[in-house]
Amino acid sequence: MVTKIKYLSVIMKFFYVCALFFLCSFSCLGQSANIKGIVHLLDGTPVKQATVRIQGTSIVSVSDAKGSYFLPDVPYGKQVISVSSLEIKDKKLNLDVNKPEYDLHIHIDPRGEVSLDEIRVTANSAKRTIETKGFAVNVIETKEAALRNIQTNELLDRTAGVRLRQNAGLGSHVHYNLNGLSGRSVKIMIDGVPASNYGESFSLNSIPSALIERVEVYKGVVPSEIADDALGGVINVVLKKQMDNSLMTSYSTGSFGTHQWNVNGAYIHPKSQFTVRGSGYYNFSKNNYRVWGDKVYVTNPETLAVEKVAGGAKRFHDDYRSYGTKIDFGFVKKKWADQFLLGILYGNMFSENQTGATMEVVYGNRFSKQHSLVYSMQYEKKNLLLEGLDLQVNLNYSDLTRQVIDTSANIFNWLGQISQRGQHLTGAEGGAKTLLFNYEDKISNRSLLSYTKNNHRFIGTFLFDNFKRKPEDELWADYVRQLTDTRKLNKYVAGFTYELSAFNKRLKSNVFYKYYNQSVSLTDPVAVRNPETGRTEYVAKETNNHANDHGYGLALSYALWDKIMVLGSAEKAVRLPSESELLGNESENELSNYGLVPEKSNNYNLGLRLGPFPIQELHYLSLHTNLFVRDVKDMIRRSVQNNIGEYYSYENLENVMSKGFDVELLYRYKQLMVDGNFSLFNARKNNKYDYNGNIDTYYKARLRNEPYMTANLSIAYELGDVAKALSGTSIRYNYAYVHEFPRDWPMFGQVSLKDMIPVQQAHDIGLLYRLPNNKIILGFDAKNILNAQLFDNWMLQKPGRSFYGKITYILK
């Protein structure tokens, strides 16, 4: 611990010296700003011939056919922007000018309201750019969810083509299913950096939606700019990067002893552009919701008969706590860097473990802990050395510590009672007694260099990961400690992309190539029999695995008309086994498998985007759909050995074919918004023969423990037109449907009713109210209001009916 404190001190001194150096290089900037943007209706239709003026000055602009305007040399300070057009009466908007560049949309409501929104234009521009490149991708904006009691994972679960798999309540382990492929085939990234660098204490489980700008969901085909190996797709979380002074905090509380708090803000010096961004969060939940059904039973101590618990039982050993902070400081908008930031992140997580891999195994004294310390450097520069040459560099060093505590041999039942008839023969609830520490160090570099000339763009990407894990357990025998060494995993992925925009930007093409390389080395103790003495002895066994491969792909989009676009993409994808799949993870009940080989897939998408189409200037309709095929070889899948399994293992499943489609329909009428989607993932085992040449028993069978048909409906309404007193109030209803799916492989071609996870339907409602000063927002959410029984991985039951309240305060 002393060594770590000294190390932290050295790092902080380094950051201090760097900050001092760059503070000394301040350059004075002029006290004026350039303001540009677009004037448009709420549906995005540009407004031409709108007059935009800085009141009291001669600075004026008239929007062109695309709605664009430009106001040069606007003095710093409080300014009033006057907006007028044939569609509205003259309106005035206040703006505190305190930085050299602004990119502002002016939103015009057909009823006459006008608003400015810099954050919104950035997000909408990014959303449209990403969704029209040809990839099967959804961009989820979190602006409203940040004000409600909604986790980012819940937003993902309502997205077309996505199904979230969560073991239990807040903080429990999550897997994601994209178009039938799940587990670590789906990569999670944070600002383009693998989320595994940060550990579970800073993940989608713990990061509040208020700290997230948007989430990009790439299904199947992934562009090489996402410089990592991914087979089923990528979920890329883009954190907020405030470009002006701001401060916001929120607190929520609700069912199952849940408390969540977060704060985020930024300060930018107006002259030097020295920037400090900070955020913090705290999450806690007892997760003591009620579970019921055939899996919730006790054993009668006298008759040994299995008796179902009448009325169900509360989870009694599932507390979750996480907290953390992230601070970045440096410079933005300098001649030598558009962004140069040094950062430090600290995260801490504590979790009680209630069950093993299934609900048949109940824990009462097993815990896991983790803390993360991550140092980072981000550098971005457009027009480096010459016009059109851009560079991005992300460098991270992660120091992660995980611990599993399991030292009690007591046997618990679902009532929290300790068996009086015996104990676990293994010595602890999850196996042998353990106080296992995993000390993990990871160095990661992600770099992107691009060159743009006219309608052509060339991109080179490189990702390098150096991972080390040193396991230690004071309860191990001496020979185990002596013969177990550091596990090492090195990986790098290099990519090249060529982009072309043609036919007046109606055609966009993206051709890419990726090269993958990975090596693993470790030493474990193994038992051997000494032929001379006849005694069992332990020796060190070295394992060295190496894998390399390459992939390539193409994405195309073509705008047939302004609001009708066809998109298609194809890729030969490769995913290398992750550190947890190869080396195991005791805190998640995962066993190691050094023999795993990379999984490969031929991925295909064909999509159509229609709209938004205006109907009488009041109704707007959009339709997005995507057909897909995933032909996977050597798929890596998580499995349990039987219905009372405690641990997961990973296996290569040879050939799996997934075909299906997803469709999303959006409708808006005045203050009413309806969003519905339907997804079908038909993933089946596709190898006719097993490794021994025999007919595979499960040939053409659906993948076990995977949902294959889902639907979602969301209805939102702004109440401002109903009564003036309700202005700023919105109400939302959400409905989720999951069709029944097999829990296990079918026997003799048939699935037993006991092996089916039944149909699940959940109804949620939410209310959001903004106070007149627009600084305080109150939110209320009721989830699973009919208290339906919801299941996930291996029929682990999720929370029932719950209620949450949230207050958000925006200082600036």
From TrEMBL:
InterPro entries per the UniProt record, alphabetical: Beta-barrel_TonB, Beta-barrel_TonB_sf, CarboxyPept-like_regulatory, Plug_dom, Plug_dom_sf, TonB-dep_rcpt-like
Pfam family, one: TonB_dep_Rec_b-barrel
GO molecular function, one term: siderophore uptake transmembrane transporter activity
Domain TonB-dependent receptor plug, residue spans: 136-234
Membrane topology: Multi-pass membrane protein
Residues making up the signal peptide according to the UniProt record: none
Domain TonB-dependent receptor-like beta-barrel: residue ranges: 319-735
One GO term of the biological process aspect: siderophore transmembrane transport
Domain of life: Bacteria
Gene3D superfamilies: Carboxypeptidase-like, regulatory domain, TonB-dependent receptor, beta-barrel domain, TonB-dependent receptor, plug domain
GO cellular component, one term: cell outer membrane
Keyword set, alphabetical order: Cell outer membrane, Membrane, Receptor, Signal, TonB box, Transmembrane, Transmembrane beta strand, Transport
Intracellular or extracellular location(s): Cell outer membrane
Family designation: Belongs to the TonB-dependent receptor family.
Entry protein name: TonB-dependent receptor plug domain-containing protein
